[in-house]
Amino acid sequence: MREVDQLDAEGGEILRVEVREILGTPADRAVFEPLVHNLKNGVTGGVWRVTAGDRSVVLKVLTRGKGTGGSWDASDDPRHWNFWRREAHVYESGLARSWQPWGITAPRLLASVDRPDGDVALWLEDVPGESGRTWSIARHAEHARRLGAAHGAALTQGADSAHGTHGADDTHGADGIHGTHGAAPGWDRPWLSRRFLRDYISARTVGQELLDDDAAWRHPLVRDHFPAGVREAMVRLRQDREWFLGIMESLPRVFSHLDQWPASVVSHGPDSALIDWAFAGDGALGEDLGNYIPDTVWDLFLPAARLPELAAAAYGAHVHGLRESGWRGDERLVRLGMCASAVKYDWLAPLMLARAGEARQLDYGGKREVAAERRYRERGSAFVFLAGWAAEARELAPLLGFPPAPTGR
Fold first, then answer.
1. Entry's InterPro entries (predicted)?
2. For residue 247, is pLDDT > 60?
């Protein structure tokens, strides 16, 4: 089962050599099964499960030569959110497995091959286990606890430095926001992302002009499936974007995955295994959790009606993990980071306005059609949930010494 005939494609002889060396078998016995991934991302040349006999591995090809003509273009800037070679560096350095003591591991790197055409082939362990797509809320919460323990340990280890545990009194300067952009000792690398949140959402502009377009909000998919108040909430989230970004950039810093969602995590015995480390870098305390929770709904892994239950369980477990590893900072900072992370999705409502007229709605990976009514209903409910997070962040920030949000317009 091949997306393309890999062994007969250009560069096939190089691949034959890799298969022989990695799997220890003649290349013509290998079966390439294409795996679901973001086809739009310019850094991903392809992802396959490669099987020979009773052994299987995963091959992921990183590239900078795949033009997208849009927001997913690959970058040569090592700090850019979509730096094309970052994932190889994360695996090669061992950072991908640095959370293993707290129960979050990653596939073992079997080989990283710099190909003559400039691409990089990552040969990775094929991790068996249940995908996060089908996890129970209790299992999601346990992953959140482990993530909290890993972040708490890093913050505790850096407590004696200028970038260790922060309280409300030492995160703000005379201008109201004092960025704590330095990384805790031991994990920063020159190829880890910086300003991920700001740069990622700034690249997403599709449909922005429709936020104030009455006709776009009257489309039947939007009108019939977005609850009352969604338009006002999403417009204000966009208006307050700079304030939210300022808050996120001023919170304590932790090494973050920055793309945690159910499709990127697998149960691996007693551990969780995280894949897709392409965005990894400097993040805010609470940011990984704030990404993970709503991302259970966008692609219909969990009903939006269960978001409050998931959020309560995951947040409580996350804080427990932080405390478990010795972090004694102000819990409200974690809450603020999670809630203010709502800004990451301020581009999604405009995108849905733009796509409401499309004849076919495709799932993540673009392989299967999904029911448009269900997608718009679930995401509309999730927007209401995010609006609640945004409102909570606006109330909480001044209590911690941050400047208040702009007055609603």
1. Kinase-like_dom_sf
2. yes
